[in-house]
Amino acid sequence: MEKLRIVFMGTPEFAVGILDTIIKNNYTVVGVITAADKPAGRGQKIKYSAVKEYALANNLTLLQPTNLKDPGFLSELEGLNANLQIVVAFRMLPELVWRMPTLGTFNLHASLLPNYRGAAPINWAIINGDTKTGVTTFFIDDKIDTGAMILSAETEIGAEENAGQLHDRLMLLGSQTVIDTLTLIEKGNVSTIIQKENPEIKTAYKLNKENCKIDWSKSGTEIYNLIRGLSPYPSAWCFFQDKNEEWNVKIHEAKLILESHNHSPGSLICGKKEMLITVHGGYIQVISLQFPGKKKMNIGELLNGMTFSEAAKVV
After folding, report:
1. Is the backbone peptide bond immediately before 114 cis, with ω within 30 degrees of 0?
2. CATH architecture designation of domain 220-314
3. Which of 47, 171, 285, 292 has the fewest CB atoms inside 10 Å of its own CB, making it the most exposed?
């Protein structure tokens, strides 16, 4: 059985959960690669990635290349003498990086491949109304998320589950799947499955302002899935309009009420502590939202200090 010497590559919190599990299972991590520091927020303070924070706290060797083809970085990477690389939520690797270790480079992706290749698999599974998803480990090749699959694990998506909740569950499922994959590699028992292309494959497009905007002409179910699929981040948004004023508002949490009514979609109906937005076949009940320049607040807090006319609507 070959002793594994692992280089781990990742950036966000999701990757930290996997790295922590690898360390706690007593595998040897000889180096961690993460994104370069960058300024963030209003003060433009330098922000470390979640993986960097973890690596520093656990005294792990850390590299933060800006260019993955830089000769200096490649020399440092080679000097770590790893025989396996693991990638979780990082960027696309050049071939001379993923081919470097003798046992290869594998990726953990938060979907059941070949579905949801790309940047936001957790969000899109919920946005599209899927009832199941999972995680997949695969050996990296020269395209994005197309390599030969090693293991996958499946889980149900709750009817009211949001992206944040599913993220946390997939991090745990992914952690176990990575350990199972490492066991196979250690024992030399890996057999892979080639991904089959077909026109039905769903894509995990990068999230942007346009595809996060709520289209109130869609069905209540589609709108509800968009809101929970983008909660808590980056959040679905729309414009609130009332008395010649307009606000760009993020809707963080909502419920779907299926009920017939005679209102046109996008009407705003407010009680003392309740806000409903009419949709085809029912209402979106807003639980929490965020007005520009304000903190996230629940609907009771908002309606305590703000009133809307009967003509108020969302677009």
Report:
1. yes
2. Roll (3.10)
3. 292
pLDDT in tens, 123-136: 999 999 999 999 99
List the end-to-end C-alpha distance of the chain, in Å, as a whole number: 61
Structure tokens at 72: 């200096």
Residues 275-308 as b or e (16 or more Cβ within 10 Å = b): bbbbbeebbbbbbbbbeeeeeebebeebbeeeeb
Residue ranges per domain, the chain?
A: 5-187, 220-314
**pTM for the whole structure:** 0.94
- Which tokens hold the place of 26? 């007593």
Reported as a single tens digit per residue, the pLDDT across 180-234 is 999 999 999 999 999 999 999 999 999 999 999 999 999 999 999 999 999 999 9
Architecture of domain 5-187: 3-Layer(aba) Sandwich (3.40)
Q: On the CB side of 215, how many CA atoms lie within 13 Å of its CA?
A: 8
Nearest CA to 266 out of 223, 235, 212, 227 is that of 223
